[in-house]
Structures are given as C-alpha cells and as structure tokens.
Amino acid sequence: KNEVEQSPQNLTAQEGEFITINCSYSVGISALHWLQQHPGGGIVSLFMLSSGKKKHGRLIATINIQEKHSSLHITASHPRDSAVYICAVSFTDKLIFGTGTRLQVFP
Amino acid sequence: KAGVTQTPRYLIKTRGQQVTLSCSPISGHRSVSWYQQTPGQGLQFLFEYFSETQRNKGNFPGRFSGRQFSNSRSEMNVSTLELGDSALYLCASSLDGRGLGELFFGEGSRLTVL
Questions:
Q1: Nearest Cα to A20, choosing from A49, A62, A53, A68?
Q2: pLDDT tens digits for A31-82?
C-alpha cells in the first residue's frame, strides 16, 4: 500500500467548474505539499500545510490531520489550470509523493 | 531573484558510463534536495544536502551520490549507468529543508541511458 494516495488519477472538466483533488496518507507527517507540474517537467509549489486551510487566488488547500486527508480545490477552473497536481508529505525528513492527478480543463 | 538552475537540461549516455548533474539553488537557500521522476515509479526522493552535509537519503543504490559546496551549489553523480536510470532528475532548494519549507524546483535534467 502506498503511503500517499491521490484521487482521482485523471480528471476532465469544463472551464468554470469547481475541481477537487484528494490526498490521503497513512503515516504521521510534519507537513503536506501541493505541487503543480506542467508538460515539460517544471514543478511549482502551490501550498505547504501543516494544519487548517490556505487560499491563494482561485486555489484552496485544506488538511485534516486527524483523518490524514487533504484536499486541493480549484474554483472557476480555466484551461491554464491543466496540469498534473501532486501531493507530497514530509515524513521522517523525507518527501513521499503521491502518483499525481492529471487535470484537463476544456474551454 | 534568480530561480533554481539545473544543468545540463538534456543528456544522453550509454550503459556503464557515469553522469554528473548540477543544481544551483536560490541565493540564501542552504537546503538542496534531489528527486528522480520516472513514468513507472513517479517522483522519488534521492537525498538532501544542508550546509554541505547529507542530511537524508532515499532508497537508492550506492551508485547514486551527491555533494554540496560551500556556496550551496549541489551536484549529483550516478555511476555505472543502467537503462533504468533514464529519468527526469529534479532538484529543489529551500531555506530550511526536511520538507518543512516552501520548495523551489529547477526545470530538471532529462537523462536518457542507451
């Protein structure tokens, strides 16, 4: 069993839709990261969370430490949001990654 | 503020050769971590360096090694290359490391082993 599970693996949406990507983990963590990877490989850090909720523009990330679960929400999705979204947890000073969620937003 | 710079961006090697990849972190960042990304295994942690010391290492064979210089620039080396080492190698810099701070990734070095 993977320590970090993401769902769904693939997601398609129409422009303007509300998107939710989920991340569950099975170990005690120090922090959780949400990352965005565009075609070509470059990775951008979206959020780092250890509790509660963070918001940046149209992106919202939440974490529930007791339930070992985090969600990334995208409001009013746009084709430029098309990318792979990766959840990563900091465990024993290492990052463990989920397998990613491939999001395609169509106009 | 300059971002994280990785060189070379692309390289092709043959089995048995060795390769050295370089990562220049954001100025002021003392932590550099390295990751391997493959279609089959996804992203995996290789190791982290902080102030010239290896602070942590992932589950990779001893053929994978690295170092960090006094200016925080880091190199990773893979010796006796195997076909399975073909991957995108990414580095990330952060202020404090250990996955507890915001990570800034380079564009990656794409290695193909023939």
A1: A62
A2: 999 999 998 778 999 999 999 999 999 999 999 999 999 999 999 999 999 9
**Chain A residues touching B32 at Cβ < 8 A:** none
Return the pLDDT at A1.
60
So what's the pLDDT on residue B49?
A: 95
Instruction: Find which of A27, A38, A43 to mutate to test the B interface (most B CBs within 10 Å of its CB).
Output: A43
Tell which A residues from 7 to 46 touch B, by Cβ distance under 8 Å.
Answer: 30-31, 33, 35, 40-45
- H/E element, B65: strand B64-68
What is the distance in angstroms between the Cα of B41 and the nearest Cα belonging to chain A? 8
- DSSP secondary structure string for all residues of B17-52: --EEEEEE--TT--EEEEEEEETTTEEEEEEEEETT
The CA distance from A33 to A96, in Å, is 10
Q: Are B73 and B54 in contact (CB under 8 A)?
A: no
